[in-house]
Amino acid sequence: MTKSNKIAVVLAGCGVYDGAEIHESVFALWAIAAAGATYDIYAPDMQQHHVINHLNGQEMSEKRNVLVEAARIARGNILPLSELDASKADAILFPGGFGVAKNLCSFAVDGADCTVNPEVKRVVKDFHNAQEPIAALCISPVLITKILGNTEVTIGSDKDTASAIETMGGKHVTTTHGEVIIDTSNKVVTTPCYMLDASVLQIADGAKNIVAALMKLLAPVQNH
Fold first, then answer.
1. With 0-12 CB in 10 A as exposed, 13-18 as middle and 19+ as buried, what is 98?
2. Has domain 6-221 been given CATH number 3.90.180.10?
3. DSSP 105
4. Which of 42, 48, 172, 189 has its CA 20 to 30 A from that of 62?
């Protein structure tokens, strides 16, 4: 029974400095739909690491919930990550944003020694064990590498982040705008997006290209 190319998109909140990167998230949703696939959106029901004022970059004293904030991008049509497993979709996609490194894992604070949210770890391993493709944009490849270990990924060209990926057991490939690295053995596809100094058009290209790579990995297993 086919699931009609359903992609699970996991958001880390709303906003580049403390949640999901909005441009990457929206262009990923657009690219999925443009490729003829469908998506469901998920986020962990948890408190954010902290809240950043996106106007001045200052930390705020208030508390916010990752699922509630991600619902802004999803226009309310979102599910808690606890409801996701590999039977619900054909692939999983993670946009970037500092929320990945603050809410989904602790990479922003702990680097290669980071810990991963248990629900996030569970779903990534579930999709990997089911041999279903995993896509990661921007900083999200560090999350995938921390969970899976020996993966070939890209975050662009940032040497410190690339070094952390190598420390976590991954292999980093330097890339530029719109390029996608495909780890065929792990079915992991990655692209740098805003890990590079990018324009909104370059982000759109990155989203389109990574979804195209995802669809190619899905093609042989459809109608199973």
1. buried
2. no
3. B
4. 42
Q: Which residue is associated with the tokens 């603050």?
A: 102
- Amino acid 117 reads N
Q: 2 or 148: whose pLDDT is higher? A: 148
**Of the listed 14, 105, 114, 138, which one is catalytic?**
138
Write the pLDDT tens digit of every residue in 147-159.
Answer: 999 999 999 999 9
Can you spell out the DSSP letters for 152-176?
A: EEEEES-HHHHHHHHHTT-EEEE--
pLDDT of residue 1: 32
Work out the pLDDT band at 164, boundaries 50, 70, 90.
very high
Burial (Cβ within 10 Å: 0-12, 13-18, ≥19) of residue 121: middle
Burial of 174 (0-12, 13-18, 19+ CB in 10 A): middle
Q: Is 108 left (phi over 0), alpha (psi -120 to 50) or beta?
A: alpha
Q: Is 114 a catalytic residue?
A: no
pLDDT tens-digit profile of 103-136? 999 999 999 999 999 999 999 999 999 999 999 9
- Extents of the domains making up the chain: 6-221
63: amino acid identity, one letter: K
pTM confidence score: 0.95
Query: Rounded to an integer, what distance in angstroms lies between the CA atom of residue 34 and that of residue 37?
Result: 7
